[in-house]
Design goal:
About 25% of the residues lie in helices and about 25% in strands. It is α/β, with parallel strands linked by helices and about 400 residues long. The strands form 4 sheets. The protein has a 7-stranded mixed beta sheet, sandwiched between helices. The chain has a 5-stranded parallel beta sheet with strand order 3-2-4-1-5, with helices on both faces. Strands 6-7-10-8-9 form a 5-stranded mixed beta sheet, sandwiched between helices.
């Protein structure tokens, strides 16, 4: 039997002030629901009501218990704004919109910005809750203001060490704890001099980024310095990398296959271009996979997926990509054709060759399938005795082809 599309599910954003901070409609939804889901901290804020069932979130976390009650008046308690890094977003993907209502409260980011006098539109909100703190790296530059939802009370100290290691030790930190409640507290200091300990698990860290003399400021645009990467020489060099990424055309949510990834530079810079970009690095050599793992952490893209193996066999079962870059293993039989078949319509294939054999392969493939060939030759000034002269790197032939 199909149930009618009526609002049986209510999601309520609640703060440290509990019921007192809710509007009348949200309070009524909480008190009249047959089943109340939430974290133990939130459930403890709500007085026991005869006939109402309180269900704490299971571990590991799952929404199955909520979805199993479809048709029963259910209320879910969440922190602040449930649609901002919250459970409301997950529920909205599983429950038809006419069947649910959401009453948002002020998010932790809104509360922190209000306490600090920061314009929220000028702040970068991030979360370390259930995510790697390495995500902070791409957002570090002089003058940046970050608001970071902590994983626990140790997050501020770990963040202070990360900032100091990157040369941002002078940055000002403010740890805002239990905002909106009776136990609200703010701790302040610099990253380099941070001595705050015993922070509450529920906190937001505000970072006013200030660079020291040894700060490494890296752009989110393509073409990071080669020395930003750990590598064994198998690296798409900076200038060629920028040209290749311009042809790959990263866009939010797009998935890249970086085939024969080497140290992972192309996939990493694809992901650094926007937080929603995704990439898979396919690499057969174990030492290079270790370098990719190091580089993805150091450069702030912990979500980069590393696949062990050689294409085309290692590509089996992967999600179809929006773009493919072939930097290694080009001459392995069937690699280009497999990547082209897997590529989604509207996607782009880019491949580099430095040998005559690789260039011949690209030329033949282009004759059959179309595309554009570009030869890039880069020269750098290098000392020759007391003078300087141009040293030309090996020219690189780049194939780029769009799939209709």
């Amino acid at each position: 039997m199909t149930l009618p599309l009526v609002p049986w599910l209510t999601v309520v954003g609640i703060g440290e002030d509990g019921l007192d901070g809710l509007g009348n409609a949200a309070r009524r939804a909480v008190l009249t629901a047959a089943v109340l889901f939430g974290g133990r901290r939130h459930l403890e804020m709500i007085p026991e009501t005869p006939g109402q069932e309180h269900v704490p979130w299971p571990s590991p976390f799952s929404l199955d218990g909520v979805l199993a009650r479809r048709g029963t008046p259910v209320c879910v308690l969440a922190s602040g704004d449930p649609m901002h890094f919250g459970v409301g977003a997950g529920l909205s993907r599983a429950v038809p919109l006419p069947e649910m209502r959401v009453f948002p409260g002020p998010s932790s980011f809104s509360l922190a910005a209000a306490r600090l006098g920061w314009a929220l539109q000028d702040v970068t909100p991030l979360t370390a809750h259930g995510r790697s703190l390495d995500l902070v790296h791409p957002h570090l530059y002089p003058g940046a203001r970050l608001l970071i939802l902590s994983e626990d009370g140790d997050t501020p100290a770990r963040l202070a060490r990360l900032l100091t290691d990157r040369g941002f030790g002078p940055s000002r930190l403010a740890v805002l704890e239990r905002m909106g409640g009776a136990d609200e507290r703010t701790l302040e200091g610099t990253a380099a001099g941070w001595s705050g300990s015993g922070c509450a698990d529920l906190n937001v860290v505000a970072v006013d980024c200030r660079a020291g003399g040894d700060a490494r400021t890296l752009s989110t645009l393509a073409g990071l310095p080669d020395e930003a990467y750990r590598h064994d020489g198998q690296l798409t060099k900076r200038d060629v990398r920028a040209v290749a990424l311009a042809r790959l055309s990263p866009f939010p949510g797009g998935l890249l296959w970086d085939v024969g990834a080497g140290c992972g530079s192309v996939g990493i810079e694809w992901m650094r271009s926007h937080p929603a970009c995704r990439a898979v690095a396919i690499e057969a050599d174990p030492g290079r996979r270790d370098a990719i793992a190091h580089n993805r952490s150091a450069l702030g893209v912990p979500g980069l997926v590393i696949v062990a193996g050689e294409a085309p066999a290692a590509l089996s079962g992967l999600e179809a990509p929006n773009a493919v870059f072939v930097g290694g293993g080009l001459t392995v039989d069937g690699v280009l054709d497999h990547c082209w078949r897997a590529l989604k319509p509207g996607g782009v294939l880019v491949a580099n060759a430095v040998t005559l054999q690789g260039e011949a392969l690209l030329t033949g493939w282009r004759a059959r399938n179309g595309g554009e060939l570009t030869r890039v030759s880069v020269a750098h000034a290098r000392p020759v005795g007391r003078f300087d002269a141009w040293r030309t790197s090996m020219p690189v032939t780049i194939l780029s082809a769009g799939k209709a």
